[in-house]
Amino acid sequence: MHSRPSHSRLSGSAFHSRISALLLTMVSTMAAIYVAGRLWQDAADRVYLIQEIDRRNGQGQSAVSVDDTLKIIACREQQKQLSALEMQLTAARQEGFVPKSLSKNEGAQSKKKLLAVIGIITTFDRKKNREAIRKAWMPTGEALKRLADEKGIIVRFVIGRSPNRGDSLDKQIDEENERTNDFIILDDQVEASEERPNQTKSFYIHAVENWDAEFYVKVNDDVYVNIDVLGATLTTYLDKPHVYIGCMKSGEVFSEPTRKWYEPDWWKFGDAKSYFRHASGELYAISRALAQFISINRSILRAYAHDDVSAGSWFIGLDVKHIDERKFCCSSWMPGAICTAV
Hints:
This protein is an alpha/beta fold and 342 residues long. It has helices spanning 3-59, 66-92, 127-136, 141-151, 168-180, 196-210, 227-235, 288-296, 307-314; strands at 94-95, 98-99, 114-121, 153-161, 183-190, 213-220, 223-225, 243-252, 274-287, 321-324, 339-341. A seven-stranded mixed β-sheet has the order 5-4-3-6-9-8-10, sandwiched between helices. Strands 1-2 form a two-stranded antiparallel sheet. Residues 93-110 have low confidence and may be disordered.
């Protein structure tokens, strides 16, 4: 008599359980769809914001909000991490100065990793010096190309433009470069003795933006360099990412305008009137990270009266390893020296 009502209650309970499970499944599915949609929309918003801020910056309009900017920064940080991983993958394929050829499916897009880019700072009236360097230690023509291909070393003369843009001085350099194809011509840099610190800075900016190398080397055009010894020496510092290599020195700061090495900002160097430690300007090298630092901060880096002092000042306060490499002392020749001043 009492079994049928009991069976009905059990059936009703099971029915309600199935309804509850079905509703729970539907709610869970809708929640998952909603969350996925929000994630997709957030990614789409980030892409849109990047495009929008780039468009507005290009058109000179007002920037987007701070909140939007923070989202863009977060997105770009992820892009940087991906780029860093790609760089690590590239580094893993390297062998010696130059990386291995990539697999066939990666094709002709591969680039060679360079050991060094050497910039020989020169002027309009130093053609004889350039010719002497070409005969003594700087390869020309196909040999210059082989130096880059086989040893990963680029060598170029570095010069600015005449204050009278397009005059005979500019034309002479253009004609010489057409014949030799071994110049970096800094179109936005005026060629003048007082501009030497800015010319050196412009060289590093140009070099790091056009060649991916481990080191960037500045040389004067009255110095003879043993490229093989220079390359071998630089390779010993490949494990140090923040290095400043040269014949380290200090020296007196001259406050008298009549002195040859007069420093207009002499008062910044204290009562002792002594320069901080820096590499001699005849020849010195910096690692890629330091060249990138110069490029990024070009507009706020101070130039002093002398290019070697200016370069040394750019690295004060940074986590930089100063290497006092005596082989870089060109004025005092020693066995195994890299350079000789003439």
